[in-house]
Amino acid sequence: KGYGYQIILKRSDQFCGRVPALPLFFHTAESVLAVSSPLTPIDLSSRNNGTGNRSPAKPSIFGRKYVHLLKGDSMKIRMFTILTAALMLSSGVVSADWLYAVDGDYLYSVDPGDGTWNSLSSSWYGTELLTSCQGNLYAIQDDMLYVADPDNGEWESLSSTWDGSNALTASGTSLYACYMGNIYEINPYNGDWESIPGEYTGTQFLAWAGGALMVIQNDVLYRTDPASGNYTELPSSYAGTTAIAGTSNALYVVQGDILYKVDPYTGDYSDLGGGYQDVTEMAVADGLIYTIWEGTLWVTDSNSGDFAGLTDSWEGATAFCSL
């Protein structure tokens, strides 16, 4: 992490996915190459193309190019910001959400446009569960549920006895945590909680998507109404899932090496491509998917699956969300 960067643009000689038509920004990228000093390409061989072999990466969202930020010339970050803006325009979104990560002992705010970060507060070591609700951040660390101010990281404890929780998410009004085989609805203002109806032993992941609580339990995906406990079992197996994140109209799942976009109503899904083996941290901000893979923050187009690297040195990240 850091504020000095160098843009590296490298052509991909292998087409492994759809690329949106962005001729204007494609030529902009060519112009960057023309005016920049000679740059050393990054070795892309470690980025999986979805075949199961460590072969050249598929092209990025910026035409058949790969964009990655490394520590270096801070002036060139402005060029990358222009390219990232191109992605957001092509996706039909204007950035409003922000990203937050716990890395080591610190809570960071992260600009989704270029991956630059700001340290907010410390004493977060070991935090693995982080979400947002009602304009605040919420985290379970050891035995405590905390609320934190997203502007400065100042925090206060809400309630205790959460040690052993393995999943945390939020709707627009409530938090949901899985603790010892039960799912609890939590008041985000005072930490009061009550269990939701149903049996949840074997719950592995929680996310809020499509107006419902999405529960992966014993490798099966369920669409759940937390008020009544009524649920619908959705098709397919989710064995091997390592991360999920939800929006108002989609659920994103990393299963094995593949990132999937899942309809939260029907369970229908589409394959957004490979290269996500062992990803455990994922968030969605303004229609773009952000993952941390092998210490690098990546952004993925939620329609085409094309991706680009943002900032590196995130090897210690243990929790990640958007707000």
Structural description of this entry:
- The model is unreliable at 1-83 and 91-95 (pLDDT under 50).
- With 323 residues, the protein is mainly β.
- It is globular, with a radius of gyration of 20 Å.
- 8% of the residues lie in helices and 42% in strands.
- A four-stranded antiparallel beta sheet has the order 5-4-3-26, with no helix packed on it.
- The two termini are 20 Å apart.
What is the helix content?
Answer: under 10%
Distance between the termini: 20 Å
The helix/strand series, from N terminus to C terminus, equals EHEHEEEEEEEEEEEEEEEEEEEEEEEE
Biggest sheet strand order reads 5-4-3-26
The total strand number stands at 26
Write down the overall mean pLDDT: 79
What oligomeric state best describes the polypeptide chains here? Answer: single chain
What structural class is derived from the secondary structure elements?
Answer: mainly beta
Give start-end ranges of low-pLDDT stretches: 1-83, 91-95
Form type: globular
Put simply, the count of helices is 2
Mind summarizing the main beta sheet? 4 strands, antiparallel
Bin the strand percentage.
35-45%
Rg from C-alpha positions? 20 Å
